Task: structure prediction
Amino acid sequence: MMKGEAMNRGGSLSSDEKVMIALGRAAELFKRRSSCIFSYFGLSFSQYNTLRVLDSANGGSLSITEISKLLLVSTPNMSGIAKRLAKSGFAERLSDEKDDRKTILRITPKGRQVVHEISPLHEGSVAEILKGCNTADRDSMLDMLKKMLSVGNYDIKTHLSMQGWKQNEGL
Result:
């Protein structure tokens, strides 16, 4: 079987399912390639993205909750990412001056340095992935992805109840 042949056969997959599978595969390719770069510098995919967000934030700091919303990561997971970044010296955890319950994460000079070292490698990898897409293709793809993301999270219980399904003991 040739590369991609199983994907092209499609069987009983709808056109929508084929699009979503291809999108998932592209996202996984991006994540794997990126993770190779980040791990070389001692960072996970999530840690790099957190540093990237902080590097571009006003003052280099945001609350854990703000970061978790931006990156679509749960707040408890984000807290663990923040602890590991602080332990490695890439960021520091601070208490919010106005609300002690809120934790602020601020990028350190070491964190900024690693982001700037990684950026050209990461940008090169992204450019390689997107080399078959011209600017108009990229703009169109970005618009489509934004529309998809605007749908938001999915709650199976809400979805089924809206369709008149009775709650199953397993749900």
About this structure: DSSP finds eight helices and three strands in the chain. The first helix runs from residue 5 to 9. The longest strand covers residues 91-95. The CA atoms of residues 34 and 122 lie 7 Å apart.
